[in-house]
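Researcher: For the annotation table, I need C-alpha cells for Glutamine-dependent NAD(+) synthetase. Please keep the output clean. Sequence:
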Amino acid sequence: MGRKVTVATCALNQWALDFEGNLQRILKSIEIAKHRGARYRLGPELEICGYGCWDHYYESDTLLHSLQVLAALLESPVTQDIICDVGMPVMHRNVRYNCRVIFLNRKILLIRPKMALANEGNYRELRWFTPWSRSRQTEEYFLPRMLQDLTKQETVPFGDAVLSTRDTCIGSEVCEELWTPHSPHVDMGLDGVEIFTNASGSHHVLRKAHARVDLVTMATTKNGGIYLLANQKGCDGDRLYYDGCALIAMNGSIFAQGSQFSLDDVEVLTATLDLEDIRSYRAEISSRNLAASRVSSYPRVKVDFALSCHEDLLEPVSEPIEWKYHSPAEEISLGPACWLWDFLRRSRQAGFFLPLSGGVDSAATACLVYSMCHQVCEAVRRGNPEVLADVRTIVNQPSYTPQDPRELCGRVLTTCYMASENSSRETCDRARELAQQIGSHHIGLSIDPAVKALVGIFSLVTGTSPRFAVHGGSGRENLALQNVQARVRMVVAYLFAQLSLWSRGASGGLLVLGSANVDESLLGYLTKYDCSSADINPIGGISKTDLRAFVQLCMERFQLPALQSILAAPATAELEPLAHGRVSQTDEEDMGMTYAELSIYGRLRKVAKTGPYSMFCKLLNMWKDTCSPRQVRRARRPRGVSRSPTK
C-alpha cells in the first residue's frame, strides 16, 4: 500500500508578458520535478503571464496569450503523468479572476479562483481582479474552443473545491489567503485535506522571511499536514524584488528550503513525505478532531491518480531541517543586488552610472553593484548558462567569462565624483579610494563651470546676484544656490550615462543609479530633480540605520577598507561654502535631528502608521529618559535645505 508521496514546488523568475519565456521556465520546472520523482508540481502565482502585468490585465490579449500558453502546457509530453498546478488570469462570466489551473494528462481538473486579494502596500489586485466569494461552491466553466479541442472537455469545475486522489486530498491557497485571519487551510485541514499548496507573488521586505516561515509552520503545527509554498523570484520589470523562499513543511517542521536570493531563473524543491505521519499527528489532537466533526465539507473533485507508488517500503523519506535566515545586512547585500542584475539584463543596457560622493548612501549603492558582480561570478562558476549568456550580452563580448568581481565591476559600473567649489578633499579621496577597491571605472570632474553659467544667466536677466547665507544672502538665496548644484549633477549624470561608453569606443548606454534612502525620502530631505531622480534607486526602501550595518558588512566581507573612513565621516551635502577648507554643513544639523531619530520617525510613520499626535504619544514613552514632554513636542524641524544628490 502506497503512503509516501513526492511533491515539488518551485521559485521562477517570470517576467510580465514574456509568455514564451515564462512557458519555457514552467516546462523546465516540471521536467526537473518529474526527474526527481514528483507527481505534483506547484508554481508561483500568475506564473503564465507574470505577476506584474498591472493594467495589461485589462487587455483581452493578456487573457488570450495566457490561454495559448496553457494549451501548450496541456499538449506538451513534459506535463504527462504529473499533476500540474499553474497560475493565470481567467475570465468567468465576464469577470476576471486570479486563478490556479490544475490539470493532469491533458484534462483540466479544477480552476480555483483566489478568494482574498492583496490590496495594501505595493499590491493593487482589486484593481484588476474580483475575489471569489462563494466559499465551498463551484460552477461550470465553459472552456474556450482552443482548449476543448485539446482536453475533449466542454466544462470544468470553477470555484472553491479540493482534489481527492486515490491516496490523499489536496487543497489550494493563493498567496494572501495564508495571511488572512481565517485562512482556507484551517477548514480544509479539518475536512481531511492533507496537502496544502500556496502559490505566491510575495515581494522582499527586510525580515519578512521570518513571518512567512512562521505562518507555514504554525499552520501545520496546529492542524497537521504537508504545506507547499511556491513564489515568484526576480524583479518582474517593476520596483519590487520577489525573493523566492519556496518551502515544503509538514507537521510544524521544514523539510525543504529554497534560496531567498539567487540568479537562477528556475529553482525546484522536492520532498518525499509519509502520509501516515500526518494521520498519526492529527489523531492525538483531540481539539482538532472535535472541530473536524463539525466542519462543513468541501466539494471534492475525484482524480483517478495517486501521488504514491504501490511499493514504496524502501523509499527513503526527507528529514526535517532548520531554516537558515539571513541577517538584515545580508538581505541588503543580496536582495537589491539580485534586483539590479535582473533589471540590467532585461533592459539590455551596458551597465550603471553612479554619482559617488564619498558618503555612506552612494557608497552603499556602489557596494550593491559590487555584490551583484560577486553573485554573477559565483553563478558562472557554478555553471549557470543563462547568467553567462546575459553577461556576455551586456559587455558585448561573446567569448567573455567573468571570474574576478572587481574586473567585472570595472566593465559594468562607472562612478563619478562631481566636485564643486564647496567639495572637500576628504570626500574626493574617499570616493576615489572606494572606486579603486571595487574596480569601477572612475571619473572626477568639476561642475563649477555649469553652475556659474546657470547663475550667470539668472544674474544677466534679473540684474541680481544671489549669495550664500555665510556671505550675507537670505535663506531663499542660500537654498536656491544649493539646489542648482544638485540639479546640475543630475544633468551631468545623464549626459555621461548616455555618452561615456561612446567616448571610450564601447557600445551601449548606462542606467543612472540614485542614492536616496527611505528615511530622507519620507522626510522630504532631498532636492527634486537632483540625482535622486535616477533610473533606479536600489536603496530607496532602506533606512540609514540598516544601510550603515550593510556597509559595515561589506567592509568586512569584501575587504574594502575605504568604507571605514566613509562610515566614520559625518554625513554632509557639501552644498555650502567650506570654512577654511573644512566642511561647514552636516545633514543632521540641516535636518534638525540625528539619523537615529529619523529612522525612528520613519518606522513610526511608515510601519506603525502614526500621525503627529500618535507619534508624540509613542515618543513620550520611548524618550522618557532623555527628553521632557515639552522637548518632544518641540522637536526641532528641518529648515528645508536640500541635500546632496550624490550621498
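Researcher: And a one-line annotation?
Model: The two ends are 66 Å apart (CA to CA).
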